[in-house]
C-alpha cells in the first residue's frame, strides 16, 4: 500500500510537471482578443475626440493650444505623445514631445502605422486644408493593461513598405520607412489586427510563466503526506481490528447469556454490539430466532437496531432532525392532545446569497449549526425538524403563543452568536421566525404551515433577524390582505376582470419596435385597471401562480393566432414565474400549448434572474425546449440578484434585460457606463441582445446608443397601454401611442 501511495504521488507530480499549455494558450488568446478590441475602441474614442476638438478650435492653431491638448490627455490611459498642425501639407505648428515631425509622410491615412525605427501610430483628422496629426503613446497603454492582467504586451507588424509609395519628400525617401515584426517566437498573437486595414497585431505572453522548480516541492510534500497517510491508515486498521475482536467477545458473552436464560444483561450487551456492526446484527437476529428468544425488551432493541432504513426515512440525513413527512405525522397525531400547541417556522435569511458567495459547503455548515441550536434548546416533548432547504420547524405540544414567542427569542439570541468564515467574508447566522398556535390559527398541518409562512414573510418584511406572531394587529391586517388578494386570483379570472397591457421594446439605433412586453392588469373597485403585482405575489405565496401564468399564456397565444390569420408580424414577450418553470407538470402543459398554437416564433419568454439561476440545469433544459419550438428566451431583471457572469454565459439566452436600477443611475453614477460597455462586449461574443429597462428620457436613450446597447424599454418610448395590438401595424415602425387600440 505504501508503494502504491508513493507511485500515486509520483504520477500526480508528473501530471503537474506537464504544463497545461493548451489551456494557458487558450486563455492567453482570449485575453489578447479582448485587449485588442479594447485598444481599437480606445483609439476610436481618441480619434473622435480629436475630430470634435479640431472642429471647435480656432482657425489657426498655435503651439499653446497643441500643448494644452497633449496635457489634457495625460489623465487617460491612451495619451498623446504630441500633436502636429499642418496647412496644405506644410508644417505649421508642433507641440512638445513630437519626435521628428519632418519625417511624417505628406499623405496620411486617418490611421497610419509606421516604424522609423520605433513603431508608432499617427491619427490624422482634417478640417478643410488644415490637418491635425496626433502621435499616440501605445506603449504606455500596453504597459498599463499588461500590468493589470499580468501580461507582457507588444505590437507586431510584418508588412514592409517604401516611402516612395507615400509621396514623401526627398529627406523622407532617403530615410526609408519599413514595418518590422516585434513578435518573439514564444509570444501569442490576437486573432485579428487591431485596426481594419492596418497591419498592427497585438501579441503578448504571461509576465511570470510558471516554473518547473516549484513542482519538486509539490513532489516532496506529496511524498510526506503519503507516508503520513499510510501511518494513519495502519493505526486505524489496528484499532479497527481491535474493535472487531472486542465485538466478537461481546457477542460470545451475549450468546452465552441467551443460552443460560440470563436476559437481564442481554439488552445492554446487544445495544453495544449492534451499533458497531449492523451487518452482524442481522446474522445475530437469525441466530436468536433459532433459540426462540421471546424477551420483549430484547426484541424491541433488535427491531430498533435492524431498522436503519426506517430511521432514515423519517429523518434528514444531513442534520439528523425529523424530516417533513415525519413532522407532519407527529403534528397530526398530537395536535388534539392538548388545549393549545405552538408552531414555529424558521428560515435562514439570505441563505441563497451565502451559497452563491462562499459555496454550498459553507451553506451546509450553516444548516448544521442551526440544527445544533435546535437540538440544544428544543427538548422533549417538543420536536424540531428540517422541512426543506433552509426551512426548519419546531412543534411545541401544550405550549401557548407566549411560550412559542419565548422559544423564538431564545433561538434568535443563540443564532446571533454563530459566524462562519466564507470566501473573504464572514457570514452571520440570521433567522426569521413565524409563530402560530393551534387550534386558534388552525388545526390541520397545511393550514398551520400556511399561517406560519405568512407570519414568517411578515417578519422578513420588517427587517429579518426577528420573529412575528399572529397576535400582532399589523400582521393580522397583513394576513387579511393576503387572503383578500389570493381570493381575487380565481374570481378575477372568473369575472373577467383581468386584462393585458402592452409596452413596446424598441431598437435603440432607430426607435423602431422590435416586440411588445405583455403586462398583467386587474380592474380595481372603481373600474380602473392597475398593476396585478400584489395579486401575483399572493398567488406565489399560496403556490398557485400557475393559474395566472396559464391564463396570460392562453390570452397571448390566442392573440398571436388571430394576428397570424390577419397576416400580422408582431412578437410578444410574456413573463413565466419561477414556480411554474420549476413545476415539471405545469411546464409540460405550457410547452404543449405553445407547440399546439404554432406561435413559438412570435413568442419571447422572459424568465427572472432568480428563477433562472435557482436550478441551472433545469433552466437550460427549459430554454432549449422553448427554442426548439421557435421561441426566444430573455433573462429578466439581470443585476438585481446575486448571479455571476459565469452563470450568465452558461445559459443560451436570446435577450438579457438589464434591470432599471442601473439605467436610472446612468447619468449620475460613473460606474454604470463601464458595466454596460462590458455587457455589450460579452453580448457580442456570446450572441445575445441587451435590453435596457426604465428608459425615461432622451438623454439616457442617447447614452445607451453611444454605449452600444441594442434595445430599450420605458416611458420614453411608450407606456404600457391596455387594449389589443392594432391589426394593421407591422413591427418595423416608429413607436407611437396610436399603435394600441383601446
Radius of gyration equals: 36 Å
Unreliable segments of 5+ consecutive residues: 159-181, 288-303, 726-742
% residues in beta strands: 15-25%
Find the structural class using helix and strand composition.
Answer: alpha+beta
Strand runs, count: 27
* Helix segment tally: 26
Tell me about the largest β-sheet: 8 strands, mixed, barrel
What's the overall geometry? globular
* Rounded average pLDDT: 75
Tell me roughly what share of residues is in helical segments: 40-55%
Kindly report how far apart the N and C termini lie: 82 Å
| Strands ordered across the widest β-sheet | 16-17-19-20-21-22-23-24
Verbal overview:
With 742 residues, the chain is of the alpha+beta class. Helix content is 49%, strand content 19%. The chain has 26 helices and 27 strands. An eight-stranded mixed beta barrel has the order 16-17-19-20-21-22-23-24. A five-stranded antiparallel β-sheet has the order 2-1-5-4-3. A five-stranded mixed β-sheet has the order 10-11-9-14-15, with helices on both faces. A hairpin with a 2-residue loop joins strand 10 and strand 11. Helix 1 (2-17) runs antiparallel to helix 6 (213-260). The N and C termini lie far apart (82 Å). Residues 159-181, 288-303 and 726-742 have low confidence and may be disordered.
Amino acid at each position: 500500500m505504501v508503494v502504491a501511495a508513493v507511485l500515486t504521488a509520483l504520477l500526480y507530480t508528473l501530471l503537474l510537471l506537464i504544463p497545461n499549455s493548451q489551456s494557458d494558450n487558450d486563455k492567453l488568446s482570449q485575453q489578447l482578443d479582448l485587449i485588442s478590441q479594447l485598444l481599437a475602441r480606445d483609439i476610436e474614442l481618441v480619434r473622435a475626440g480629436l475630430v470634435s476638438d479640431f472642429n471647435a478650435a480656432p482657425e489657426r492653431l498655435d503651439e499653446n493650444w497643441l500643448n494644452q491638448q497633449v496635457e489634457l490627455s495625460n489623465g487617460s490611459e491612451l495619451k498623446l505623445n504630441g500633436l502636429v498642425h499642418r496647412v496644405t501639407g506644410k508644417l505649421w505648428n508642433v507641440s512638445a514631445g513630437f519626435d521628428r515631425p519632418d519625417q511624417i509622410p505628406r499623405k496620411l491615412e486617418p490611421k497610419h502605422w509606421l516604424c522609423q525605427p520605433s513603431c508608432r501610430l499617427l491619427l490624422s483628422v482634417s478640417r478643410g486644408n488644415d490637418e491635425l496629426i496626433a502621435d499616440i503613446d501605445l506603449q504606455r497603454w500596453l504597459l498599463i493593461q499588461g500590468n493589470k492582467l499580468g501580461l507582457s504586451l507588444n505590437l507586431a507588424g510584418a508588412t514592409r513598405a517604401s516611402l516612395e509609395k507615400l509621396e514623401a519628400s526627398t529627406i523622407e525617401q532617403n530615410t526609408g520607412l519599413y514595418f518590422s515584426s516585434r513578435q518573439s517566437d514564444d509570444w501569442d498573437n490576437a486573432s485579428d489586427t487591431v485596426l481594419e486595414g492596418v497591419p498592427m497585431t497585438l501579441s503578448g505572453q504571461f509576465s511570470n510563466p510558471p516554473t518547473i522548480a516549484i513542482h519538486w516541492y509539490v513532489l516532496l510534500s506529496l511524498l510526506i503526506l503519503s507516508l503520513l497517510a499510510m501511518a494513519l491508515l495502519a493505526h486505524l486498521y489496528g484499532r479497527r481490528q481491535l474493535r472487531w475482536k472486542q465485538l466478537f467477545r461481546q457477542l460470545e458473552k451475549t450468546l452465552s447469556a441467551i443460552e443460560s436464560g440470563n436476559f437481564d444483561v442481554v439488552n445492554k450487551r446487544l445495544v453495544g454490539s449492534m451499533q458497531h456492526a449492523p451487518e452482524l446484527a442481522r446474522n445475530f437476529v437469525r441466530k436468536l430466532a433459532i433459540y426462540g428468544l421471546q424477551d420483549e425488551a430484547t426484541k424491541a432493541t433488535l427491531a430498533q437496531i435492524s431498522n436503519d432504513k426506517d430511521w432514515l426515512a423519517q429523518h434528514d440525513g444531513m442534520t439528523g432532525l425529523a424530516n417533513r413527512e415525519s413532522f407532519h405525522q407527529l403534528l397530526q397525531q398530537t395536535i388534539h392532545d392538548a388545549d393549545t400547541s405552538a408552531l414555529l417556522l424558521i428560515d435562514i435569511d439570505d441563505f441563497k446569497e451565502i451559497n452563491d458567495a462562499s459555496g454550498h459547503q459553507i451553506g451546509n455548515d450553516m444548516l448544521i449549526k442551526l440544527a445544533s441550536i435546535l437540538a440544544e434548546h428544543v427538548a422533549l416533548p417538543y420536536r424540531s425538524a428540517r422541512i426543506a432547504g433552509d426551512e426548519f420547524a419546531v412543534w411545541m405540544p401544550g405550549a401557548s403563543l407566549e411560550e412559542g414567542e419565548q422559544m423564538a427569542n431564545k433561538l434568535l439570541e443563540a443564532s446571533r452568536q454563530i459566524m462562519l468564515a466564507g470566501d473573504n467574508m464572514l457570514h452571520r447566522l440570521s433567522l426569521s421566525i413565524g409563530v402560530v398556535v393551534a387550534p386558534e390559527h388552525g388545526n390541520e398541518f397545511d393550514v398551520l404551515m400556511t399561517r406560519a409562512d405568512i407570519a414568517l414573510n411578515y417578519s422578513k418584511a420588517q427587517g429579518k433577524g426577528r420573529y412575528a406572531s399572529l397576535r400582532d394587529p399589523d400582521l393580522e391586517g397583513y394576513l387579511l390582505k393576503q387572503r383578500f388578494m389570493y381570493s381575487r386570483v380565481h374570481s378575477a379570472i372568473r369575472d373577467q376582470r383581468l386584462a393585458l397591457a402592452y409596452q413596446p421594446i424598441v431598437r435603440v439605433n432607430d426607435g423602431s419596435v422590435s416586440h411588445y412586453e405583455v403586462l398583467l392588469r386587474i380592474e380595481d373597485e372603481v373600474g380602473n385597471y392597475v398593476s396585478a403585482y400584489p395579486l401575483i405575489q399572493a398567488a406565489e405565496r399560496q403556490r398557485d401562480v400557475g393559474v395566472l401564468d396559464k391564463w396570460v399564456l392562453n390570452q397571448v397565444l390566442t392573440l398571436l393566432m388571430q394576428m397570424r390569420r390577419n397576416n400580422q408580424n408582431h412578437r410578444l414577450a410574456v413573463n413565466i414565474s419561477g414556480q411554474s418553470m420549476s413545476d415539471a407538470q405545469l411546464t409540460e402543459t405550457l410547452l404543449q400549448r405553445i407547440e399546439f398554437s404554432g406561435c413559438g416564433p412570435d413568442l419571447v419568454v422572459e424568465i427572472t434572474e432568480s428563477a433562472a439561476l435557482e436550478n441551472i440545469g433545469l433552466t437550460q433544459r427549459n430554454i432549449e425546449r422553448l427554442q426548439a419550438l421557435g421561441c426566444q428566451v430573455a433573462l429578466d431583471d439581470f443585476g438585481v440578484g446575486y448571479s455571476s457572469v459565469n452563470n450568465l454565459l452558461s445559459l443560451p439566452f436570446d435577450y438579457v434585460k438589464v434591470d432599471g436600477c442601473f439605467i436610472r443611475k446612468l447619468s449620475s453614477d460613473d460606474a454604470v457606463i463601464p458595466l454596460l460597455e462590458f455587457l455589450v462586449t460579452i453580448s457580442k461574443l456570446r450572441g445575445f441582445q441587451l435590453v435596457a429597462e426604465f428608459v425615461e428620457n432622451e438623454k439616457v436613450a442617447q447614452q445607451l446608443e453611444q454605449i452600444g446597447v441594442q434595445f430599450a424599454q420605458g416611458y420614453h418610448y411608450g407606456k404600457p397601454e391596455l387594449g389589443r395590438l392594432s391589426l394593421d401595424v407591422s413591427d418595423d415602425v416608429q413607436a407611437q401611442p396610436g399603435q394600441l387600440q383601446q
